[in-house]
Structure formats: structure tokens, C-alpha cells
Design a protein that fits this description.
By secondary structure, the chain is α/β, with parallel strands linked by helices.
Amino acid sequence: MDRINNKTLLSILCAPGDNTLSVVNPATGELLGHIPTQTEAEIEQAISLAEEAGNSWKQKTAKERALVLQRWYRLVMDNQNDLARLMTLEQGKPLAEAKGEVAYGASFIEWFAEEAKRACGDTIPGHTGDRRLLTIKQPVGVVGAITPWNFPLAMITRKAAPALAAGCSFVCKPANQTPLTAYAVVELAYQAGIPKDLLQLVIHQSPEVVGRVLCASETVRKLSFTGSTRVGRLLARDCAPTIKRMSLELGGNAPFVVFDDADIDAAVSGALASKFRNAGQTCVCANRFYIHDDVYDAFMDKFIAAVDQLTLGNGLDESVFVGPVIEASAKQRLQRLVERTVEQGSRVVKGGQPQDGLFVEPTILADVEQHMDIVQEEIFGPVAPVLRFSSDEQLIAMANDTIYGLAAYFYSRDISRIWRVAEALDYGMVGINEGVMSTEVAPFGGVKQSGLGREGAREGIEEYLETKYLCFGGIQ
């Protein structure tokens, strides 16, 4: 990690103690090191410093902020390989995926550097002859963020870049399981010229403590969170007394649909990418597979054969496609979920064998029914339950039968059906003949209990801007 500045990273690591957090490689169990944690008082101090730094930052022109963000983008891409290796060590995903995440995360920095100069207001036709009406856009203020372990770099840049571009300051709690990647990418931000008080990381032994401080603070005017729906509900409750603006990117239960007119080979390829990327630990992963009766056998034969080729192991091995899950509790939950589904009447047709350490074998379940627990829960692991359907109407009802509404996928070559189904699916994002659809140029977010707001695209910077209306009177 020479180009990231090893000395800086080593300065973050410390001797173990009561106020430190250990970081472990999930593939090997190796201790990577310890980092210091903050007290509640120190987190509150970080918020105060961020407010002060934001007062200066928002006075800069949009172009000045954009130039700093562009330098950050270039530093991240210059250090892509080192950042990816660090991410694989602490998170477990295959190295190729980690490199892809670095590029994906950097793309948001580049995009919002450009969007900083496009945060425009409007002129409004006056309702009387002696008045002129217009709106301007101003930064929200101090932003608090809580990011997950499954994308430890991209989830920070996807939030921090638009906040900084808009003129806000940013205080972020990275996931306790994967803080090193967060510290590394933020160090590069400092090297790019972003003031240290403006962009801060805070961490505590108990994640709930940081959330409580961010929610209760009257200085923090916006909270952005990516994580489970359960935690999102708690944060929304705790933000209510201060009426904060919120962006919530919460849980998903994505249906993956293969119609009778689909290209089966393309559908299998999309299924592999959507389901088993990051060991199935993404909010937009295909969660339940609906296959039309007429192509069920053909799809299953090819799907099982394709999954049989997936290699499981340490992400630093270039031949590995599926790495470990993040922690023991995640593996235990997946094992219980598969066991319960089999008890309810399904069959394991691929995988499901016990593995050492934190590895979970890619698994396919057949004879799954809509009422089973695995259909209603977010799996968050390399387990694929497969169901049958016989009509478009039946499929839409089954696919929408969930509290979630983040992502959905379907394969069809009938343009009429494509429009009907795309409009009928109650999801914020729909992949049509495509298993991976996230990009910085398109809005990312869900409906129902999958969240509030959008990240990325032109909508992303609006989440960090307030619209102020100005009325000029007395114009003769």
C-alpha cells in the first residue's frame, strides 16, 4: 500500500486497549490491527468542528469545490490496486470486485465534482408587475452519515461527494467491521485538499452510540444511512425531534424473473452476477428467482451447471468468485434460513454443504413456495431460492408481495410485456435483461420500506441542498 501512504495508515493503528476496535480478515481470521475509537464527547466535538469548517467551505465557489473533488478522484484512481487489496483483506470480496468498487466509488467523486457547477436555482414569472421571483440553492449544513461494511468505499464516496460538492460538511461513521478502507479513502481526500475538519470519520465500540449522537444533534441537519430497514426505522424515529432531512437506503428483496420468451443463457449470466457478487451481500442482490413454467427446467439445468463452476475462497486468490461472509452471525443466520426452508418443503439442488470458517457454499433451493420465510426475508448471502409462475399477472402479484421495493430484475424479449411489467413492478429500480445496473449517472434508491431519497445522478446532489425562495418587491 505504498502509494496510499503506509505511514498514515500505520498512524491510525494502535496497541489494543479498552478504547480500541479490532479489525479482522474474514477469510483467514487474521487480526489486521486495532484502531482507536471516540467517546460521545469527541463525536460531539467532531460535529462542532465540522460546522465551523463548513462555514468556510460553503463560501468557496462551485468551481473551487469541484477542483478539489477532481483531485480526490484522481488520487483514488491512482491508488486503485492498493485500496482494493486493503478492502479484500478486511471485507473479503474477491480482488477483482474490490477493484471494481474502487472505480465505482471514484465515479461518484468525479460525477459530483461536475454537478457542483450545476446546482442551479430558477427564475419564476412574477404574479404582479412590481415583483421578481427566483430561487437559489444552498447547502443543508452539517451532514451525518452511517455507512455499511459491504461496500466500505463506495458508500462513503456516494454520500460524501455530493455533500461536499453542495457545500456541506460531512461526519461519517463507517462500519466497525471495515474501517481501514474508509480511513484510507478519506486520507486521500485530505491529500487532495479537503480540510480535515470538513470531512471526518467517527467510530465507537457500539455503533448505536454514534447513531444516537448524530440523530440528537441539532447541528446535524441531514442524516444519510445505508443499512437494514430495522435500523432505518430506529434512526427515523430518533431524528424526528430535530426534524432532520433524511436519506435512507434500506433493505431489499429483489425478484429475479425469467419469462418464457427470455434468452436463457443471458438470464443465467445475469443471475450469477446479481446473486453471487460480494457473496450475495448486497441490498440489490437477486433475492428470489421466479421462473416461468415453460422454461423452468432449461433455466435450472443451466443455472445449476453455472453455479457449479463458481470457486469459493480467499478473495486474494484471482480464481475465486465467491469470498466469505462478513462474520459468524451472518453464516449462522444463513444456515438456519436454509434449514427452515427445507423443513417447510423445499429441496437443496446445489450446494448447502458445511464449510470451514466464514465461507458459505453457493446454494440453490428448488420447490420453494411464496409463503416460505426465505421469500419474505432479505437473504444477504449466496443462497438462491427458485419459484415457478405461469402468468404475468401471477408473477406481478408475487413479486410485489413484500414490504421492500428497492430493485427488481426480469428477462423478456417481448417489448409490450417489458413495458407492462416494468411499470407494474413496485420498485425504485428495474433491470431489464440486465443483472447489474448501478451507475453514478442514474438515480439509486427504493420505494416502500426500502428507503427515502435517491443517490447518484442529478438527483443525488439535491439531497444536500435547500431551495430558498427570494421575492423582490417594489420594482417600478
